[in-house]
Amino acid sequence: METDHDHVTRSCRPSYARGEASNGQAAFALVYFMVEGISKVIFSLTIRPFPNWGWLLASGIVTILIAFYLWASLPVTAIWLLGVLLGIQLICEGAALGYLAWQVRTS
Q1: Which residue in 34, 46, 56, 82 is deepest, having the highest Cβ count within 10 Å?
Q2: Is pTM beyond 0.90 here?
C-alpha cells in the first residue's frame, strides 16, 4: 500500500543514478585531456627553435595517453581516478613548463 509520504519522497529523488553523473564527469575530463594534449603538442612544435621544447611535447603526449586510458576505462571510471589522472597531468605540465622557462631564462 502506497501512502502520500512515499509518493512525495520518491518524486524528490533525482532521476539519474550516481553512475550516470560520474560518467558525465569522466566524459568531460576525457574531452579536456584530449584538447589539452593536442594543444600542447601543437604549441611545442611551434616553439621548436627554443631549447628543450621536447619536454612540452612529452607533456602533451602524456596528456593524450591519459585521455586514451580514460576512454578505455570509461564505463567503470571511478571519481578518484579522475582526480589521480588530473594530478598526473598537472604535475607533468608544471614540470615541463617550469623546465622550459628555466632553460629560456638561462639562455
Answers
A1: 56
A2: no
Distance in angstroms (rounded) separating the CA atoms of residues 33 and 105: 29
Joined together, the cell numbers standing for residue 64 give 593524450
The three cell numbers locating residue 4: 502520500
- Between the two ends of the chain, the Cα-to-Cα distance in Å is 80
pLDDT for 14-62, tens place per residue?
555 555 557 778 888 889 889 999 999 999 999 888 777 888 899 899 9
Q: Where are the domains of the chain?
A: 19-106
* Grid cell in block for residue 107: 639562455
What's the one-letter identity of residue 84? V
CA distances to 3, 55, 64, 78 from 89, in Å: 51, 13, 10, 17
